[in-house]
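Minutes, project huddle
Topic: does the predicted pose make sense with zinc ion bound?
PN asked that the exact inputs be recorded in the minutes so nobody has to dig through chat later. Recorded below.
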Amino acid sequence: MPVGTLASVKGVSQDVLEELGVQILLANTYHLYLRPGVGTVRQMGGLHRFMAWDRAILTDSGGFQVFSLNDLRKVGEDGVTFRSHLDGSSHFLGPEKAMEVQIGLGADIVMAFDECTEYPADAARVRASMELTLRWAARCKNYFEEHKREVPWARAELAERRSSGRPRAAVPTLADQTQALFGIVQGGMDPELRRESAERTIDISFPGYAIGGLSVGEPRELTREIVESTLEHLPSNQPRYLMGVGTPEEIAQYAQLGVDMMDCVLPTRAARHGLLFTSEGKVSIKQVRYAQDESALDPACECRVCQRYSRAYLRHLYASNELLAQVLNTVHNLHYYLATMRTVRAWIRAGHAVAN
Ligand SMILES: [Zn+2]
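Predicted holo structure (tokens), as shared on screen:
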């Protein structure tokens, strides 16, 4: 899932995302809650209509961003009081509020509000944090079940149906559909706590499960160990989502371990800093060695950038701080990530077993 923090994948328009084959993108609840505000998005019919994107959207719960605001937050049983990074104004997000906001945004998949345990943390702290996340998961589910019919697209369709006098459609329509709420497994770097968190989250019952609290500064080998051991405890017939990873090599590895969904800012953020992923390894396009390099960025890449432009031109755009540099670099990196995942899917379809 490419990351579209503010209902926009920075530098790339929706038609290009479609052409790249993006099936689902992630938008950040924290950022959209602050700007333009959930009221505006709801008024505009939800995120899909607002950003003119028919394909799937997932919103995170806002928890991860709120917990990143170290100096600006206060955590309690009911949630987190925090100050906006934009204007310092005071806000609150908790399980019920995160659900209310995500229902208002109207993404297809919404996430339970969890506490992302910091790393490193001692055993007592990890246990307490995991228990808090479990209590919040149950509260999220309760609120969601009571309010899941309040999605903006269902409301828009119901209003239209009422005004047109049309009867209820024989086949299920948008108004009959609800979002999917995923639970999140925490438990720090302790495989035993991860198992317990997985089992107790499954007891609450969600249509999909995420592995949270990784890629928070721990060594990569440890990330892989925890992913592998956690996957064993999550149902393989439901989506399993690993949050916030990784490099192209890592996403291929995690997919082969049995992860179905991942999101990462790396392809888009790195692109804006001139760091490009290619079949020949990473390319830092700002380097002077590319100043007169006529070759394609990645000769093996079929993206519109590699088909058309030379490394020399991309280097010139970057060195000149041209807006087009960010656009083209992002298009290539997204294509590279999506092509990596297409290869993984073909590999699985060809009958190669996934570990779990
Ligand atoms: Zn390319």
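Observations noted during the meeting:
- The mean pLDDT is 94.
- The chain has 15 helices and twelve strands.
No decisions taken; revisit at the next huddle.
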